[in-house]
Design goal:
- There is one protein chain.
- The chain is mainly α and 118 residues long.
- It contains 5 helices and no strands.
- It has helices spanning 3-18, 26-34, 47-65, 70-87, 91-105.
- The chain is globular, with a radius of gyration of 14 Å.
């Protein structure tokens, strides 16, 4: 199993825990974010590595920094996990997932697709 496959397997396990109704989704979401610092490289060319860390990092930050909105942030964690499990492995669906979550929902700034000249 290569690094990307190991990362995806770890995320899948965390996402499945998030979807259980018996606990808060915060801890497994935080674990997804922590995978980047836990020995799983996030620069091997798999967009899932950086995209998922960014999504769940942003959602856990939201819950931490605005505790009065923690319920809303946790609802988004559940939705993000459910949607990830539905698209994982389908490259085009994954690209749409990242586009929607990073830019449309979380408001990350889109990178320019052409280089600027001085």
């Amino acid at each position: 199993m290569n690094d990307s496959e190991a990362f995806r397997a770890a995320v899948r396990a965390c996402a499945e825990v998030i979807l259980r109704d018996d606990a808060s989704p915060y801890e497994p979401a935080l674990e997804i974010m922590g995978l980047a610092s836990g020995g799983h490289p996030v620069d091997d060319g798999d967009e899932a590595d950086t995209g998922l860390v960014s999504i769940f990092g942003e959602l856990t930050d939201w819950a931490e920094l605005r505790p009065e909105e923690a319920g809303q942030a946790e609802a988004h964690m559940v939705t993000a996990a459910r949607e990830w499990l539905a698209v994982e492995g389908d490259q085009e669906a994954e690209a749409r997932y990242f586009d929607r979550w990073l830019y449309d929902i979380l408001g990350f700034e889109r990178r320019s697709t052409h280089s600027e000249q001085s």
